Amino acid sequence: MTKKLTCYLFTILTGLISFQSVSLESSFKGLADFRFYYVDSNTANSYLNGGYGKFRYDHGSGIAIGQLGAQWHVDFNSNWSSTIVGNAFVNKDNEALGITEAYISYKGLPNKQGWRIKSKLGIFYPVVSLENIATAWSTPYTLTSSSLNNWLGEEFRNTGASLTIEKLGKFTHSKHNFSIDFSLFQNNDTAGAMLTWHGWTIGSRQTLLGETLPVQYFPARKTTLAKQAAESDPFKELDHRSGYHLAGNWKYANKFKLNLGYYDNNAKEGLVEQGQYTWTTDFTHLGLKYRFAKEWELLGQHMRGRTYMTSPTRVIVVDADYKNTFVILRHFWNKHHIALRFEDFSVTDRDLTWGDNNNENGQAWALAYRYKFKRNQFIITEFNWIDSTRPARWYVGQQQDKIERQLQLGYRIYF
């Protein structure tokens, strides 16, 4: 963990304690998610354990704590508040406990026309996901996140400040709400490394602050990329300059929501420190949510971008374009909920580095059924199917074109 990140955490935690000592109100939200899983990936290890498996778990079966999430919120007054989010993930192959977000918020009071200002200072997710909207950045629709949002949870966290200008329609008898969010951040200079080297993945695992991630094997790690560390630090600051993210939102009543944005980590080329290189990464994103009938909703997101890494002499070593689209159709009635998700994704390798083929394309399906048997308690079962072509699997003696399957049965409680 960098000194700057440690300072941010210390400032936020101190603020939390100070706010709590004089606060008017504090609240706590939690999530407990327990699962049985079976993964059929032809003996492949999970991407979380340095393999080319597309799922969170290794090939085989087991019992896991899918997520233990805790979200503590303290209101200092009508404008200021603090939030800290912790998560734990436990299974036989991988376990971790720590903080995923920590920030101080300001929310101004709306004027007569419905305009107000909001801001954040600390460590928080960029305003991208329309899927991971529940406690501790979980998704309420399925047991797994889409590959697009799984990547956000793995390599992205804004350490900095955001400013949001919001227009609330109800103050002028309108059903339309608008907002623009602008963030400046640091500690995301290596974002793009994991997507490039293991490709798009499907899971429900968020990287904790201070955690590092294993880099998959490929021959270039013994030659051109011999100085690359064995693990990537996704929240590393190397160039001491800020990236930025701009996002706009439009919401119509409770029927339609549109999100559009652009992200750029603005990383300086050619820097390396203790085996961690700067990756210049940017993307545009578009999302929509549409409730077209009383018990039916459509949700989708699209992302397109580029990430590249250079040597200290500014020679491009890794260069990749990427894109991802997913759509969720959900139907809910009484105590029942069904969600069907389709994904299409790709990575296009643009460099000529020997022994580092990062090309990939694939599609994935997920079908999840959820039953509410008590207040805030759910039984969820989900089946995942993913068909992907990735030439880099040849480096470890696996088929380049592979179909992987996963079946999960989970018990989830929100409190």
Summarize the entry for a quick read.
The protein is mainly β and 415 residues long.
Total DSSP E strands: 20
Alpha carbon gap, first and last residue: 31 Å
Low-confidence stretches: none
Number of helices: 3
Global Rg? 21 Å
Proportion of strand residues: over 45%
Q: Quickly give the structural class.
A: mainly beta
Within the largest sheet, what's the order of strands?
A: 1-2-3-4-5-6-7-10-11-14-15-16-17-18-19-20
- Give the SSE string: HEEEEEHEEHEEEEEEEEEEEEE
Q: Mean pLDDT, rounded to whole units?
A: 94
Write structural notes for this entry.
The structure is a single chain. By secondary structure, the chain is mainly beta. The protein has helices at residues 3-22, 147-155, 193-198; strands spanning 25-40, 60-75, 80-91, 94-107, 115-124, 158-167, 176-186, 213-214, 231-232, 243-252, 256-264, 272-273, 276-277, 279-293, 296-310, 316-333, 336-349, 360-374, 377-389, 401-414. The chain is globular and about 65 Å long. The two termini are 31 Å apart.
Write the layout of secondary structure elements.
Blueprint: H1 3-22, E1 25-40, E2 60-75, E3 80-91, E4 94-107, E5 115-124, H2 147-155, E6 158-167, E7 176-186, H3 193-198, E8 213-214, E9 231-232, E10 243-252, E11 256-264, E12 272-273, E13 276-277, E14 279-293, E15 296-310, E16 316-333, E17 336-349, E18 360-374, E19 377-389, E20 401-414
Antiparallel strand pairs: 1-2, 1-20, 2-3, 3-4, 4-5, 5-6, 6-7, 7-10, 8-9, 10-11, 11-14, 12-13, 14-15, 15-16, 16-17, 17-18, 18-19, 19-20
